[in-house]
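Comment thread on ticket #2218

A.B. wrote:
> Attaching the input chain for the structure job we discussed in standup.
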Amino acid sequence: MNTVSVHTTQNIELEFDLASLGERLVAWLIDVMIFGAYFFIMSFVINLGPLDRFITGSPWLFFFLMIPFIFYNLACEIWLNGQTIGKRVMKVKVISLNGTQATFGQYLLRWLFRLVDIFLSNGLVAFICVAVSQKKQRLGDMVAGTTVIKTEPRVAFQDTLFVPTQETYTVSFPEVVQLRDSDVQLIKEVQLNVHRSGNTMLAFHAAEKIKSLLGIQSQLEPVHFLNVVLADYNHLASKL
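C.D. wrote:
> Ran it. Output below, let me know if you need it in another format.
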């Protein structure tokens, strides 16, 4: 399975599963079907008639009806955290190559290059670029510094992020309440990547970052330390 390694802003390298060409194509087809349904419904609502006559006879109305089609991908990826409806159905999303959520500028560049990737080339440029590029990027991704990854990890629930605790659980590091959601998510991503790759150095670097951030000392083995941090955080968060 194709993966991409990205360096986070905390200087930790993580590995993500790349969305396949087939998954991206199906996501695109779902979005196309949504627009097919949109134009089908609108044709009944306003009685479009033959499309060529409608375009020449009502150009401003035609442009108005095309606005959702033109801005659909850009708006969805901004508001739905890197996903269109098709991508959400296929459980894939756009991310920045540094592992963070893409910025507005990156989404905008991807959207602008759809003109070359898809419309002017009938999708041929996008198809070839995704098929041959190492990080499964279309031209717009290459320019914007983004790629499309799977949103579901290749591990079972019990191997992932939630660390259940008992009522009698004793918190080892109360400082974990200082962690932000992004910090906790990073720890979870590191745990998943260590599980996949067996690379415990990821856990070591993450543990050192967390210790420095919280100002704590611990002799626990890095993987165990991260497990304790997550357990402490879950236990304290459940009390809020």
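A.B. wrote:
> Thanks. Noting for the ticket: The longest strand covers residues 3-7.
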